[in-house]
Amino acid sequence: MSANHVDAETVDADVLISILNILYDEYDYDSLYNCSFVSSAFNELASSFLYRRVVLSPPFNPVLNLRDKGELIEPSLFASACLPKYAPYVEELRISGFLSTRPPPFNTFSTTLLNAVKSFSSLRVVKLTPSTYHEDVFTQTLQILNRVTTLEELTVNASCTDNIRAPLVVQIQGLTRLEIYDPTRAMLQILPEWLDRLSKTLTALHLKDNCGSITPGVLKAFVLPPYQETLRSLSIGLSYSLTHDDVFNFLNNFPQLEELELRYYWQIKAPVVPLSLGRLRRFTVLHARAYAKREVLGLCKWMRKVIAHSPIEDLRVICDRDNDIANYGANIRFDSIIDHLSKKHANTLHFLNLGSTYVGIVGLKSLFSSCLNLEEFHVAAGKDALNVFKQSYGELKHLHKAGIELRNMNRRAIGTEYEKVSTLLENGPPTFRILTINGRTWKVRVRMHKLCNE
Q1: I need a surface site. Which of 132, 158, 244, 389 has the fewest CB within 10 A?
Q2: What is the pLDDT of residues 244-273, one digit of tens each?
Q3: Residue 37: is its pLDDT beyond 70?
């Protein structure tokens, strides 16, 4: 046999599945597609991964195409996934982007989607979150989703939650995860009754983005005894009708929460309601850009109250300006939350992603010297950040991924810092594999000499 000839029969099945699973997790569809051409045995196994997640997300098109009937909206796996050979592999269906707004019969996509869902016998996850769409595009599909016995997770946005379609959505049973973007009043009015019916199975409820229709009264309607014991993951988006105390009073009804995502907005009155989430392990904070020191101090104090009594393992702070690299504004330090993490959560913290949140050198030193179980971190810091990291990372035995946004430096100075990357990667902890500086990433696949020593 040629040394270059490889097929599924000559590779250990567990090894092959592990490789394909990595490609699947990294959304590397091109590699999965190429694997399907190696041999017939490879084709069957690679196809099961290639078609497990089907994503349809048409890009924005500024020109109206009158010939477009929605049949082939974009080059994707959707068309081939509908074939009898591949349909049984589909477990996740995600539809987003810019669907055609043309009505039937000029747009036939609603019928195509209906037939596709009928053929996906293993469907577990459905996500329907298009940016543009015709109002009836999902009506037929929603009518049959309540008959899909394998369905476990559902994500919808305004395309499915108006006065006509919301009653169809709430007929779906057996969900373990429910995610609603921009929940409408029509949906919120019937949501408590639906949650009551889902109480035996539902473990994750996420109300995201614009939640302006959620008032303190609506929150109280969500406090249902059956799922107070079963809910493990919760998200609440932005609602200016809710004070911090309203949210804290609500959260106190779910002491068993393990994952939480909240949208923060600055309020003159600090929360006074005590909060105790003794099982919270993952906390995600979304917030607007802070322009004043008092806003940052208020945010840090609020975060400390949320996680004060939690064995927090994963903390993520996401600012609206994170995608606006060219306009960070003033670098106001978030050292008070770093100080809290170093003193209260040093033994449990494994993942820290502060995005564009700025940390001073003192805070950085405190983080690296105390939180020795860190596996991943991402922060923004000043010009001495890499030197501080180099001095401390020898103690971070579990670290495998680091990200640093360097601030207060010109391009030439940042270029000089890039020269330190190879040294940092070569001499870092044995598990250290990925380093990202200002959006540029370096990776180390294998350290052969360390593997040999082991």
Answers
A1: 132
A2: 999 999 999 999 999 999 999 999 998 999
A3: no
- Indicate the pLDDT class of residue 277, thresholds 50, 70 and 90: very high
The answer, yes or no, to whether residue 413 has pLDDT greater than 80, is no
CA separation, residue 284 to residues 85, 306, 309 (Å): 40, 11, 16
Domain ranges of the chain: 1-151, 320-453
410: Cβ contacts below 8 Å, ≥ 6 apart? none
**pLDDT band for position 149 (cuts 50, 70, 90):** very high
| ∠ Cα 191 195 196 (to 5°) | 120
- Cα dihedral 361/363/367/370 (nearest 10): 110
* DSSP string covering 329-391: -S--B-HHHHHHHHHHSTTT--EEEEEEEE--HHHHHHHHHH-TT-SEEEEEE-TTHHHHHHH
Q: How far apart are CA 76 and CA 57, in angstroms?
A: 9
HSE (side-chain half, CA atoms, 13 Å) at 199: 12
Alpha carbon 104 to chain centroid, angstroms: 34
| 293-307 vs 335-344: helix crossing angle, rounded to 10 | 20
Burial class (CB in 10 A: 0-12, 13-18, 19+), 411: exposed
Cα separation, 282 vs 224, in Å, equals 23
- How open is the CA angle 275-276-278, to the nearest 5 degrees? 155
Q: Is the peptide bond before 311 cis (omega within 30 degrees of 0)?
A: no
DSSP E strand boundaries for 129-258: 153-156, 177-181, 204-210, 233-238
